[in-house]
Structure formats: structure tokens, C-alpha cells
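User: Working on a comparison across species. This one is GPP34 family phosphoprotein from Actinomadura yumaensis. Can you predict its structure so I can line it up against the others?
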Amino acid sequence: MVDVPESLPARMFLLAYDLRKQRMGGSGGRLGYVLRAAALTELYLDGRLVEERRRPAPGTPGDDPYGVVGQIASSRPRSWQYWVRKGNRRMVATVREELERDGWIRVRRTRVLGLFPVHRVTVRDPRVVKALWGGASSALRGKPVAHVNSYDAAAVALAAAGELKTVLPSGDRRRHKRRIAELTARSGPAAPAMRKVIQAQYVAASA
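Assistant: Here's the predicted structure for GPP34 family phosphoprotein from Actinomadura yumaensis:
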């Protein structure tokens, strides 16, 4: 049995790692949305966030490892999309530093053209990524949705909404559309909100 990180954002970061190419998949901006949505989803599943009038609100007191509940509590009511976008790039750095500190990854820091910082990530134990992928794959293809581990269900929902090809190539997203919708319904409002954020980016880019 291989140990995996407890937090959903840490799991999604590792799931974004491409074992074949030995590098992170996806753009930094989109990965940030996935990680922010993962943090919101974790808090929602644990009852530390609830939904009021289609917006997140503080729920049961508890751990707030990324400060998301604190941000929401100190702000006027805002949409789930707003909180998916909020600090998305910083979220990548935060989760990367957490995984490096806890020994899950190595990070080599370089600069492109001597100017632009680049972080080369290597997963220390590929079996961790394989175990996480196995959980997501089982959620997509295995037991009835009601019996799927909540974090595995959320991993599929987040990977689909964030178009994380290391977990769900586009063909799989089409093939398992109904199952993904069922897993997403189990996982709360953050994944659908992320999908809307990404769709809005597509619209803006094509305008």
C-alpha cells in the first residue's frame, strides 16, 4: 500500500504530473484553478464551507490550511467562480512548496534566458502518482457512484472540469460524460464553477 498526500490540492498537483514526460502537465494558470477548486471542494466535503444563495460561506469551524475559509469569511459574498480565480497562481507555488517540504517532490529552480524563473518538478516516487491515478480510474469505471471514495470522485470531477489530460484525455471525458456528471454532483459546486471560469477564458481568447 502506497501512502498518498492527505489534502485534495496536493493530490491534484501530483495527478497533473506527466510520468511519461517526467514534467508537470497543463499551464500554470489552469493548474492554479484546479488547485483552488480542489481546496474549495475539500472544505465543502468536510463541511467547513457551505453554500448559501449559490455562494460559498463558512460552515463548521476546523482546519483552514490554505486560508480559503478566512478569505471568504472576511469578504462580502462572492461567487464560487471568483474564489476559483482568486490567487490561482500563488496556489500553485503554495502547494508545490508544501509537497517539496514534505518530501513528495523535488524542485529544481532555474531561469529561462537568465530572467524568467522556472520550476522543474520531479516526483520522488512514481508509485504515488500511479496510486492516485488508480483511485481516479476506479472512480470513473468501477463501483456505483454512491460508494466511491469522496476524494477519488472529486479528483475525477476536478480533472474533467480543469481538462487535466494526465488524468482524463479528451476522449475519456466524452466517453464517460454521464459518469463524470454523477461524480461531479457528489463533489459540490467548485468543479462546475471552475469549468465556467475556463469556458469564459476561451470566449475571451476568441473575441
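For your comparison, note: The chain is about 55% helix and 15% strand.

User: Helpful, thanks.
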